[in-house]
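Pipeline run #58 for the internal structure catalog. This entry was flagged by the ingest filter as a single-chain record with no existing model, so it goes straight to prediction. Upstream metadata was stripped on purpose; only the residue string is passed forward. Reviewer on rotation: M.T. Logging verbosity set to normal.
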Amino acid sequence: MQLIQIEVQLLFVLRKVMDMIKRTVKKEVDIALKNYPVVLITGARQLGKRTLAYEFVKEQGFDYMSLDNIEQRQIAIRDPKYFLQQFHKPLIIDEVQYAPILFEVIEEIVNMKRLEEGSANGMFILIGSQAFHLMNNVTQSLAGRVSVIEMLPLSLNEIFGYESQPFIPTQERIEIFKNREGMEVKELFQYIVKGSYPELYKEKNKMISDYYENYINTYIDRDISELINIKDKLKFHSFLQYLASLTSQQINASELGRKIGVSYKTINHWLSLLEATGIIYFLQPYNDLSIAKRIIKSPKVYFSDTGVAAYLARLNQPETLLISNFSGAFNETLIMNEIRKSFINNKLPFHAYYYRDVNQNEIDLVLLYDGQLSLIEIKQGVSFHLSDVKSFHQLESSMYPIANEVIVCNTLENYPLNRDIQVVSLKCI
């Protein structure tokens, strides 16, 4: 009895800790439920999708069912209409990718309610971890009836309880956030190694390496194995480890294939699966007619979470990573991830590119927003000169006007390089 009471008390404490971290994307789910019959929350595993959705059980009376339950999964596949009749609406269905036939039946239910009542908004929240399969079924069955909400790892704004806005680096926006508390480099690299999965912020003493070992072995392997029959898992793990060391770098599938001992087609397929399951994303090169002849066209790859990448690259000690040759790449990955989260968490498209030409001129991030460009260089360090952003001139002939030019770096205090270019702290994202 005493052990049960201790477990209940611990569960209460963990819930209170998570209650302190407010997910920015929740407001987007609220808005979507008012405007669409179905809301699909998707993203990698262990991001808190279920925790977020369960808030709607408490707040709005949703019923809940997970297809992790094998018996219910079998019923859903064999007799989807009967399965859905077991639960009242509105309804949350977790791990919905295990029974894709449900999408067709949900479409029928939504269409009927629209005919009978004029609106079917807010009927279903669907949760799934495999975007590749989910999006195929959504496109086929629920087009026009579903709002897709992508969930990402925790942002620094969420962890520290700050307001989140898309990072359009105007002078006005930078001024608004400049008084936030900054982060020393040592603390920053501790965060890079820890990563931003919610589970690691429930239990402060949780072993980070144990968590990621379990995450890689249990979740990534399971998801990938469900999508493809990988004959040589040792090669796939070698691929993951090598790819992690390339975060924020350009990807050459042929070269990567030679190092791992597989074909470039296999590498491209593995990359697409990691992208579909939310482990990585790509940044494509910026291109318009004025610069088309001189640009490098290979994409850059980023791990969606620096903790996963640091574990895979065997750089899971902050002090080791900080003094390694990989420190700049991981610093860039963190800042790129935070900028990306600021858009996606507010359900805005992340029209982001990088620039590199045949003369080795490079811009880390070219943001296209509202018909204007923001040029962003991501740097490790605090002191810079105009020579560090000389590549900005390469886009002066672009078809879009340049609205903002900044360096985002480890400085604690913002300062101008000149009238047009600002050096901006990470805290301003």
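catalog note: Residues 208-227 form the longest helix (20 residues).
catalog note: The mean pLDDT is 89.
status: ready for reviewer M.T.
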